[in-house]
C-alpha cells in the first residue's frame, strides 16, 4: 500500500474514533476518576476507570478537544479494558515511545492506536494524543497506592 493511501486510511480511522467515540460516558460506580487538561490547546478529559483485582474492568471518558485528543481517548479505553493494570501501563509506555518516534515493542497489539503514529511528526500535537494516556497512568498509579 502506498504511503499516501496508508496516511488516508489512518486519517479515516482517527476521524471514525472522533465522530463515533467508543466508551464515551461516565462509569457511575467507578473506582477512579481523573480530570486532566492540556492548557496549550484547551483539550479536557474526564476519565473514569473501574479496576477490580488488578484488572481494568471498564474505562470511559468524556471531554472536549481536537480530533486527535478525543480519538486517542476512544482508542485508549478500548485497549485498556480487560487488561491487568501492568499491561495497561505497558501499553501506555509503548504508546509514549511511538509518540516520540522510537521503535515500539510489539508485544501488545495496539490495534487502531497505530493510526496515531504519524502524530510524532508534529510535536505540538503529541500532548493532544497523550492526554488520555497520562490520565489513565495517573488513575491506575493512584489505584496501586491504595
TrEMBL record:
Pfam family, any one: NifU_N
Domain NIF system FeS cluster assembly NifU N-terminal, chain residue ranges per copy: 10-128
PANTHER family: IRON-SULFUR CLUSTER ASSEMBLY ENZYME NIFU HOMOLOG
Protein name, UniProt field: Nitrogen fixation NifU-like protein
Organism: Sporosarcina psychrophila
Amino acid at each position: 500500500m502506498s504511503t499516501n493511501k496508508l496516511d488516508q486510511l489512518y486519517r479515516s480511522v482517527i476521524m471514525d474514533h472522533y465522530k463515533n467515540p467508543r466508551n464515551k460516558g461516565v462509569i457511575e460506580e467507578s473506582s477512579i476518576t481523573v480530570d486532566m487538561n492540556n492548557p496549550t490547546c484547551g483539550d479536557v478529559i474526564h476519565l473514569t476507570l473501574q479496576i477490580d483485582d488488578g484488572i481494568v474492568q471498564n474505562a470511559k471518558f468524556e471531554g472536549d478537544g481536537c480530533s486527535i485528543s478525543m480519538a486517542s481517548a476512544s482508542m485508549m479505553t478500548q485497549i485498556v479494558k480487560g487488561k491487568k493494570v501492568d499491561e495497561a501501563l505497558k501499553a501506555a509506555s509503548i504508546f509514549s515511545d511511538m509518540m516520540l518516534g522510537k521503535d515500539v515493542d510489539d508485544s501488545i497489539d495496539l490495534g487502531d492506536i497505530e493510526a496515531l503514529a504519524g502524530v510524532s511528526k508534529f510535536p505540538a500535537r503529541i500532548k493532544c494524543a497523550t492526554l488520555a494516556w497520562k490520565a489513565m497512568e495517573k488513575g491506575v498509579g493512584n489505584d496501586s497506592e491504595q
